[in-house]
Write the structure tokens for this entry.
Amino acid sequence: MKKELNGVDVLSFVIHGAIGVRLLTLPRDIIEHANNNGWISVLVSGLIAFYLGFAFYWLCIKHPGLNISQIVEVTLGKLLGKIIMVGIFVYIILSIGLSLRSTAMSIKVFLLDTTPLLVLILIMIIPTVYAVSKGIKTMSIVLDILLPIVLLAIAMLVGLSYKKIEFQNLRPVFYGGVTPVIRGSLNLVHPYLGIGIIGYIFPSINNPKSTKKWIFIGTAISLAIYFLMVILTILVFGPEESKILVWPTVSLSKAIQLETELFERLESLFMAVWIPVAFTTLLTFYYSSILNLKALFNTNKDHLIIYGQIPLIIIIALFPGNIVELYKYLNWVNIMAMFLTFIVIPSMIFMTLIRKRRMTQ
Amino acid sequence: MIFRKRVYTKIIFISLCLLMLLLQTGCWDYRETEDRGYVLGIAIDVAEPLPRGSDDLEEYFSEREIEKMPLQKGSPKYAYTIQIPIIPQARIKPEGGGGGAVDEDRAWDITITGNSFFEVNREFATRLDYPAFYEHLQVVVISEEVAREGITEILDFLLRDHEIRRKTRVFITPGEAKAVLDVIPRIEDYSSLYLVKLPRGAEKTSRIAHLTDLGVVSQNIHSKLPFTLPRVISTKDEIKDAGVAIFKEDEMVGWLGEIDTIWAKWIRDLAIGGLVVVDSPNEEGKLLAVEIVKVNTKVRPLVVKDKIIMNIDVEGTFNIIEEMRTGESNVFDEEYIEEVEELIQEKIEREIKDTVAFVQEEFGVDIFHFALAMKRYAPREWEKYEQEWDDVFSNLEVEVSVDAQIRLVGLMR
Amino acid sequence: MLSKILGIFKSSKKDKKEDDCTPGNRLKEFNVFSSLDKNIEFLKSILSKSEDIVYRQIETNENRYALVYISGLVDRNLIENQILKPLMDLRLQSLLTDLSDLMDNLITVSDISKESNFFNLINNLLSGETLLFCDGISDALVVNSKGGEKRGIEEPFSEQGVRSPRESFTENIEDNITLIRRRIKDTNLVVKFYSLGERTQTKTALIYLADNAPEHVITEVQERIKSVNVEGLVASANLEQIIENHKWSIFPQIMSTELPDRVVKCILDGRVAIVVEGSPYNLVVPGTLAMFFNSGDDYYERTIPASLIRISRYISFFFATTLPAIYSALTAYHPGMLPTSLVLYITGTRIGLPLPSVIEMFFMLFTLEILLEAAIRLPKPIAQTVGIVGGLVIGQSAVQAGLVSPLVVIIISFTAISSFTLPYYNFAMVSRSLRVFLLIGASLFGLLGVVVLWILIIIHVASIETFGVRYLQDFFSFKKEKVKDTFLKVPYELLGGKQEALKDEDKK
């Protein structure tokens, strides 16, 4: 693969991969477990985030030129590796399909009411496929351009909610035990696994060592964004109300009141700014899926792989009947993510260490 | 240059996609602005007797039949009125279309009786030629009768629907809610827009409750806290907003007068404007008014054995605004200022204690959100008393300490 | 059937294999004959279709000569004074024995060469040079006598500036190169000539700084130019379209300008300039997006005002493309986003209008396009009427007649004005096209359509690669230096090092 990216490009990949569609509903999931200490959950989950970032970096440095799927095969053996790659494939496809469905539903609720789901899904798929078919350098540029928009959306929320914040809502602090906090933080594994995209783009970076700094910064920024979201929800709504809202982040933008009456229904504006965010997440996952399949089947036929996944994704996106089912499936995906994070990756690291030791002997 | 096969397939694929999209009769959500009925305000009354608003008896009879309609389940409990702006359709346009004649009706209030608001909402389609559109809903006015029976039923639709913003204000009126909407204010076209801007006066006086939109109501209901909603009274062409209605869980239990509202707001740390009037220290019978610049209240619970004492700390900054005196007293005198500050402190202490006692006796409802203070600062004790908080509240002791500071004195000594 | 439809995408050139019909190629086989009469006969037979070729035969005591030239293309003064006069001077006759003598001693013209192949001779003749044949010698002299009427150096036609120099390129390639040479006096300046186009043999020059421009760009440009295979190359625009990477894209990838100072700045940045005979617009390759947003004037203004103006240019580009779309999307799909009083006002203006708001917008947009096209082609006296007609009659009266709402007219006018803040006309065309697409997207899917279309546009722009350099070269890979010349404009000496940006791609 041509080495077209610089170290600094990793930054936007990390942030876009980590900030996903789950951001819209995440505060509720966390606060359900951890009540008003949800913000501590996010901080705790930061450990997971940094662990993931470092793990991917380390694995890719030790196996230069290979993407993460190929590393799986190399470290865990052919058979087990292929099985795990199939697992990764299922995980990614489910992620894409369900995220797509989630995005389409939130668009349907907040922006366009009567447009059929299929149409919304198709609309989101077309730019994704287009971007992926153009190659990684194009993707990197697009992500770089869209990065300020993500930050702008978050900044908008933070800046404008300022008036409605009641710091008292944070109390009582640390009351309620540690377990709920940790349970809350486990909700964040699925989004953070999006950092795994760097595992797929590492072969295209031309000075891998310099990415360390950027991965760190990117992870820190994503962590900060989730943190801000959760803490803002708590501050503005209080823990009780947050548990009731289905889409707390969007309701947050509903609650904002501008002094001047420039924009009324701010949540529509927020949703409009949100679409690029959803799109970039889809993009990063899609690209991972393509590389994963390529490594799984050892082919180089781009066309079939890129376009062949589309029907599969559409079927998955249309599959859940209603939003309740959607969340059930998303929880499954989260469990799969936990499996990947806590079992697969440590074993890969372990095997790599053993190998190194063997080789140095 | 001849295209390679790959580009052909790309073009075909994209055009098929687009064709598929468009063939499904595109533009689903497209609707012209003049084709939507912007609902500016909702009024909720009881169904029997039918609310008249400001209508003449004669005309009103003819509408009666239309307002009742067969329901899918149950018998009508509420009468819902929506206010729609009238934008004249049939007129020849001169340069740029002017406003209507002064006496013309600028808003149309139509009423339908029913149970579920959603059903009634859809029934409006039988009388309106364009669909009702709630994204610009400004106010919800509820009559006292309805409020006394609980408002969760009514408000659920408003909170769940994605169209309605959480900033919609809620008001309670002792009379007919429809009458409030029917008022044609002299300086505004639609009473809903007028109503929604009225609480801005909270910056001037604390008799108006200002944080009372749907979001706050929802928050309080879900946290199981009692709350208050502002009271509006209407005459033929005027609306007055002062005082509050007290809600416990979701039923109204009573009114709180204007003066009591002021002090209740002080305790809740919501006072953003207003004044305090005390006796002038110099002259008998004359008054002195100070304007509130900033008031901060902190409520902390203190649990001593089995008694709970609420410490209310008030810190306020004031300006001397009006001092009715005839003689030559010197405002710049330090002693004078201290005297005034003392007076203010005493007055506030007294008033707050009185108000708390009044509410404790009269209603026994914790509108001051002492429960929150307990939850935040004494969570263990809160768990003990959570269940019987209402009884506990009625027996609370309150310690008030006030710190008043005078900043400016105006242009004259 | 499908292949028929797709046939429009194929080029309609015939195969350029060994085509014996073209006289040009066959000529290569012939060299100059010794006999003067035979030469003249041969020339006359080849060029029988042109009656404006002058065959001037001279007889002296020693020899016979013939001058062949095309009357409109040559400087008659030069021929008469510097060729004919010495040739016919009796005193010098005896010195002549050879063509070289003629060349070295007699003919007082600065640029002479010897040539023996008819192919080159005829090309030179058709370019305005004079051929001198001598009886008994199988060589001919080619005398540079190019002249004829041409336009002088005038003020620029479409690129105005306040403080920039007012010389602009003309159609004559030598004048253009002169304008560039006056500004760059460096031995590293490379000027390479090509003749493109079968029938037109248009002279084209490649100009760049050898130590500044990146290798791969130079090689790429040279290859592309060498592979140009058309019948006629009339203007630089044709060349632009032939050598572009992405021909079907809306966005221009090669900059064309008629200001020499702009071209010189680009050459100093490491780009390659292409000068084409017959067109006052010269090309600069590779053209990145930032170049189209930077007007030459920026470099002559102060930092802070220029930076603010640049930022406002980006914003106005955004408005010029998106404003009608946003208006349509907001009023028809999401009126909840506008303040209540505004919505009620818009509703008030729309009551009684016959057209749906989308059709209205399209109609006004179409009217705008018509006005713009008409304004270019109207003769000068009527041009002023267009302003009156367009503004008053169409705008005002349409509102009064109740066809469109006043808000739409305001929006369209604002859009029109913002689209002309861009310094390059061919980029203004971009915003006009994008406007239509965005409006279609907005009318189908509201705000979602606008956002998704913008994403598609961004993806497309991000994927454009011209001559090995990315179109969005100056925008991505967050580095501090990139901001220096795009959104802001720093004082002149800090701008150096731009060529490093182009060289970045070298690290492969």
About this structure: The first strand of chain C starts at residue 53 and ends at 59.
